[in-house]
Amino acid sequence: MNTIVVDYTNFKREHLCCVLRDRNGEGRIEAKRRWLENVFEDGLVLRKGDVNGRAFMEYVPAEDAWCPVDAPGYMFIHCYRIDDKFRGQGYDTAIWRECVAECRIKHKKGLCVLVGERDLPNLNRKSDFEARGFRFAAKAEPYFELWYLPLEEDAEPPRFSADLTEAEVEREGWALYYSHQCPHTAKLVPRLEAKAKELNIPLKTILLEKTAEYRAVPRIPCAYSTFALFHDGEFVTHEMLSPARFGKLLSEHGKK
Asked: Using an 8 Å Cβ cutoff, are 250 and 195 in contact?
């Protein structure tokens, strides 16, 4: 098996792993390509198997991660996915081997990643990283965890940014902060906006487009910037809800 690095030279023609095709103008592929074009300059790497499907890892120097971490000298893994049908075929081994080799060449202290306290939808699977020898480093409310794999004996564990809890969000009503780091938000968010409008419930959506917007001072008190839903300033969920589930959630909160 072979792996491919998606970069400036080929990102407009390579498939993007989680989205093989768009239907009816969903815009997911174009949204992800625009996002990549903005972050390649930060050192982002998208390494994938030469297959049509999810067998990839996306990582970036932690100083420019789309996650509020204090991890100088580390590489941060945004997303790691291996479809079950590709497990055991060597793609996962090849991607990990080449990622670690790249980190050593670049003199990185190690790798770190955001997971849930258990395997949760939309987050990296904690079990994948436990199996690779990652260690627990820190926790952020309500259920996010930072794990790391040191590549140097004296590497200091990474942490969440100290000012994470000081960030503020919209204090009244519903607010959804999201980015196109996950391309599925390009399809989903307009549908959630339509559902909120149908129910006559105001929903403010805020698209985070550049790393600096999120990291200079965390825009939201949440470790996950790809999709974070708040109600009256309180965190509700990171899960990318279907319009039906979202409508039920809006209705339930409206009865309280």
From this structure: yes
